[in-house]
Structure formats: structure tokens, C-alpha cells
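F.,

This is the one I mentioned.
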């Protein structure tokens, strides 16, 4: 792919991500995307074919890298600290939270991710499940090994709740705001540690 093609595709993805964050998936038209990206509709059709594929690619652009990072950290945790629940949860929680301070549009994607949970979009949910469900299963397996006495149904409920709390924390809906004088990075790290402790306690609960 030539540099110009790459730049056009990235401009379209960036524009779509910002608009999906602001207006949702149903509320964003391809005309708005082309206007924001300063391209014509033919460019969108050439690179993506349809609005549905454009939505999917917005997720793939962020989720592929984040998923690889999560799984790499999980493998390292299992090698360095076998059976350590906090290390497993750190691998699950820290890469997504790091997106919130990503200067290259990560914060917009966080809002897009929140939209995916809030809007009923069965095709998108199927795409996410088909392409990234294996990540959740790997973590469920690792947590199950760390907590062998935890019933499988309870494990999945609690991991689901942890994922929900993580999404909430990423979207910055909560009561705790970054104090003046505290860097975004430090605030993000503190949030990650607090969530890891919370999730570990919930997973270990009787």
C-alpha cells in the first residue's frame, strides 16, 4: 500500500473514530465521515466497502494491538509468577487503561468502546466476540487455574463484572477525577492498581 493510500485510510479511520465517539454508530453517516476526513465517498468504498466494515476496522485498529499486549503480559505473568491472581489481572486491566492517555486518539476510542456496550448492535458484538473472545477465554482459563475452587459459572460472572468496571473506569464516568498536580500517567496507574485490588477481592469472595 502506498503512503498516500495509507494516509487516506488512516484519516478516514481517525475521522470515523471521533464521530462514532461523539454521535454513536447509528448517528454517524458516511457523509459526515467523508467531510471530516476530507475525502470522497469513493475512498471510503475503496478502503472499507461499507459502513459496517468501517466500524469493524475502527475497532480492529486498536483492539488487535491491545489484545496482543494483554496476551503477552499474561504469558509473562504465568512464566514469572505462576498462579498469581494480581499479576493476571494486571495483564487484563493495564493495557486498556493505558489507552485513556494515548495521545494518538486513544481517548476517543475509549468512548467508542463505551458506545459498543451502550448501543444494541448485534453485528458489532458478534464481530468483537468472534475476533477477541479468545482473549477473554485465555484470561478466564488463567484465573481458573489461580482459583481452582471457584466454580466456572461464578468465574465468568465475576470476570464479566470486572470487564464492566474496567470499561467504566476507562470512560472516566466515575466520581474520582484526576487531582491537580497529578499527571495523567500517575492517575491511570493508581486507577489500575485500585481496580486490580477490587477485582482480586471480588474473584476471591466466598
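My design for it:
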Amino acid at each position: 500500500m502506498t503512503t498516500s493510500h495509507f494516509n487516506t485510510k488512516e484519516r478516514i479511520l481517525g475521522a470515523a473514530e471521533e464521530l462514532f465517539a461523539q454521535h454513536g454508530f447509528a448517528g454517524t453517516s458516511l457523509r459526515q465521515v467523508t467531510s471530516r476526513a476530507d475525502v470522497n465517498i469513493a475512498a471510503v468504498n475503496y478502503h472499507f466497502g461499507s459502513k459496517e466494515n468501517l466500524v469493524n476496522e475502527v475497532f480492529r485498529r486498536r483492539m488487535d494491538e491491545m489484545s496482543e499486549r494483554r496476551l503477552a503480559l499474561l504469558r509473562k505473568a504465568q512464566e514469572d509468577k505462576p498462579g498469581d491472581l494480581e499479576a493476571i489481572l494486571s495483564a487484563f486491566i493495564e493495557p486498556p487503561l493505558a489507552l485513556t492517555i494515548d495521545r494518538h486518539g486513544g481517548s476517543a476510542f475509549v468512548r467508542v468502546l463505551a458506545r459498543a456496550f451502550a448501543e444494541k448492535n448485534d453485528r458489532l458484538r458478534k464481530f468483537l466476540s468472534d475476533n477477541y473472545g479468545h482473549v477473554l477465554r485465555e484470561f478466564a482459563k488463567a484465573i481458573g487455574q489461580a482459583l481452582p475452587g471457584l466454580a466456572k459459572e461464578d468465574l465468568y460472572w465475576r470476570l464479566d463484572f470486572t470487564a464492566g468496571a474496567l470499561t467504566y473506569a476507562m470512560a472516566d464516568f466515575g466520581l474520582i477525577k484526576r487531582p491537580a498536580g497529578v499527571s495523567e500517567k500517575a492517575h491511570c496507574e493508581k486507577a489500575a492498581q485500585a481496580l486490580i485490588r477490587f477485582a482480586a477481592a471480588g474473584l476471591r469472595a466466598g
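The chain has nine helices and no strands.

Talk soon.
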